[in-house]
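Structure, all two chains, one model.
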Amino acid sequence: MHCVRIIPCLDVDKGRVVKGINFVDIRDAGDPVELGAVYDAEGADELVFLDITASHEQRGLVFEMASHVAEKVFIPFTVGGGIRDADDIRRMLATGSDKISLNTAAVQNPQLIASSARRFGSQCVVIAIDAKMRSAEHWEVVIHGGRTPTGIDAIEWARKVESLGAGEILLTSMDRDGTKEGYDIPLTRAICEAVNLPVIASGGAGNLDHLADVISQTGADAVLAASIFHYGEYSIKEAKEFLADKGIPVRKTDA
Amino acid sequence: MIGIIDYGMGNLRSVEKAFAFLGHEVFVTSDVARLLSARAMVLPGVGAFGDAMRELQERNLVEPILQWVRDGRPFLGICLGCQLLFDASEESPGIGGLGIIPGEVVRFPNGVKVPHMGWNDLGFGKSHPILDGVKEGSFFYFVHSYYVRPKADEHILTVTDYGSRFASGVSSGKLVAFQFHPEKSSDTGLRLLDNFAGL
């Protein structure tokens, strides 16, 4: 039974997890290794670390972080944010990271997708698409964390990254991100219908119904969420029990 | 000591780190003499079948691997390292594999998303010490577009459903190979690696 994946997303600044993660029994809420291990023990299916380090000189810290995470956390993890070229990708995979996620760099240089897929394998090339609604059934790709419009249609871009060899799409609705109003169902459905790749839905999760809705109504393979897990509103275990009750296949960790 | 074969194909660090986490001595090398000094050998790898065979040949690793397996010594293939044990793959027509387990590697048919990416469960085809302490129905992490089709049922160790049922694990004595990634399958995956180290 193929399972839907639940993926907590952790923001990382200078190698430390930020945005007030609030778990009981955590000694160091900024320690990516400790948080990763807690999420693994709770039953998270994967982890995404999003590097938001602004200062160029300190970007290297995320490689160190990934290397430490890989020593202690044995579920797949993706690192994204600020990865610019093949050398960044090679270095990141050498730490033991499983996948890298490309966003702005892929839009600016689509051939990076093709060359990375060839050199490192499609399975490790995640393309993060940040999409903003322009009209009904039309979404535009935005880059630089949502600040820069590109004029590229999100559905066409999804098809293109698939043809270039991407292994997975991490789709974030910039209209819903941070609102807790639920995932953008029409956007997610449109992308899932356009490609035959696994799609991770992201942006807008505010409660467990939102997770169930996007999975059952779109064909998304995974749901990414940050605040509902970090602030202890719901545990991964509760989320899985909730989805299982709705008949959605999830990995049970007590098997 | 566990020797991980470095043949330039993909991410070997997570396998190394998993064995180290379990407290086993482990090294990664392409040096044949060093590999032969190991107690158990691991062939991981991601990428294309044909490229991988070429890399193994260029490093003169094919014959030492075949001899190792003929001697019945512990050998673990993971993901592409599982597929390479077979005769050939649809991914790279005309290129022979290691030919240790009779059968072929085929692509998932249309109708399912490719790659098969995520967690899926195992049914057991037979008993084997590598499965000690692992319950049937446990979940493991998969990422692959091709799967192995052994000619003989006796080689099927575990089965998994994705569209249809395929062999997710194969074995022949102390030769064991998995299509999924035990090093990325949390506690249950680590258990398999620990069991392998004890074979």
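Chain A has one domain: 5-246.
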